[in-house]
């Protein structure tokens, strides 16, 4: 008689449970109940209880009851395995069928849309469209492509092309394994590559591979091999901006594709996997290796005779030439080049730019950029043709570069990337090093600012005989006293000055500094200066300067999302604010103040030429809380920089004019913002006293003149015209500044800022020339 100690779950009330029914209840699949195969056999029968009306088990149930727990687990696992195998077989078939219905076959013209990369301004408008279809993609019928060129491409990319189903199962399995191991896939047929290029993109994912395989199979079913190969040859990228075999033939050989030899076709075919890398002009050895691989494959596939293979000679190609890629030929061209360099720093290659239809969003403000170009053009108009200028402007609150001007010729040299000595504009970093010293050297600390002096064995002079026998650091910054800052630099140590500059944001190496670093004898770029000064403007917070904010592919993948750059507190607010305090009087003293009495911290600098009394480079760098801007002026050959009248150019002159024009325009609709609260470190500076500017060496006869657009005549009335009031170069009315501080050597003196301080465009520098040995003017 069966045991009755267990309770049968789900049994009828009043029935006796059995061992068999207990086993079935515990092991059967959820929701399933097996009815008995045989009627109850009475007392003593199988599962029959002691005369009750229970449900007897079937023979299958009895068999299950006899299994050990291990056998039951094995049985259950085997059933699960059957389900998994079934899904593994039926799942892909079902997915393939769904994809076949849903996914469309691409047109070759889809590749054109994907290959156009757009660079947008900060407001979403388009700055440039790169790799445009017209001019770098020429469609040709397959009949125009020699058969040996067709075979060369098949040998390089897919030797089973003429026999496969559009995809290679073994290659796909290998790609899947590579993907699982963290690799980058691979294993694409020509048909798959065509699909990838024109429709699904180059993302390394199973979803992309799935779409690629389904569409490739669909194309293989609905189009002939010749059609597929023709479309492929008309869309694939060969480098040098060439899309398609015809454009490639022109780029590398200067001839129609129909004239290519087998050896020439093999060179082009070998480029497809890595066009920029295997260009013979870049890596001839690598290109020859690929060429040999292609020709050997053609022999293996019976597409080329062994005799022809043996006779083949690696052909010469044309050198790369400038090509039309949609890059603007004006100042925006330099922005595009700088953006591509920045993309490369994020791991985004030129090939991706050319092939993936990128949408590149930037920080460049189109209005502010135009204001930069206008300020440069108007100030340089009428000046010697050899003068060059650069301007970089950054938002101190984010590090966003809002304007980038490297010259008017977008295909020429980018002067925003030039490295030149900054002269006195480097002095704020000397001050920072002094403030950080223990004990600190504060703005009120006095030095002997007389001239000349021999300091640490070097003769140092102030510009134009300027002397300040008992000068505190703030006054020395305003007057740009070389002897004071040379002493300070030696006192804190040249390396400490270099460290302070790097701390603020200078990226130049500044290796092996000597005392001359205190007056700017190490080369930097305009962007360095704008960024480092921006750290002062942001109360010691450094933001990495950048132009690119977001990069998206044609199929919606995000390659880069910069968001808001992480801030770095490079120095305390108090330190940064003390540096700012030292420069607050420089603009007005240099006769380049901003409109509406807007507070601004700035510093000028001039680099002395080896020719007596001449200068090679001139700078003005300055900031408000909203914007930091650096301007450089120089020449290509480092020759002396002069005005149209032959006078030397100083930092306060031409670059100061460009800086002032630009800043006033860029800030015209911005509220006037004050700098943060000032708390002195160390000895505080003395209360400000009215500064009397020294005579302007560029305008020695400036008194009683009327100047319009650089043309000056004596003022018959002996006074300023148009009721404009000239206060040290500041025109406070809506009038033209015709008075004492006009520069008859620099044009563009018309005040175009209605209200407030107009642009005083004279070259009103104090004529600061540094000492005999150092490239600095002191201002």
List keywords for this structure.
779 residues; Penicillin binding protein transpeptidase fold; 24 helices; 20 strands; elongated
Please report the distance between the alpha carbons of the first and last residues.
Answer: 114 Å
Shape: elongated
CATH topology-level name of the domain at 133-311: Penicillin binding protein transpeptidase fold
Helical/strand content category = alpha+beta
Number of strands: 20
Name the poorly predicted regions.
1-53, 694-700, 704-778
CATH architecture verdict of the domain at 133-311 = Orthogonal Bundle
Q: Class of the domain at 133-311 in CATH?
A: Mainly Alpha
Lateral strand order in the biggest sheet: 2-1-3-11-12
Largest sheet: 5 strands, mixed
Short structural description:
With 779 residues, the protein is α+β, with helices and mostly antiparallel strands. The protein has a domain at 133-311: Orthogonal Bundle (Penicillin binding protein transpeptidase fold), CATH 1.10.3810. Helix content is 35%, strand content 11%.
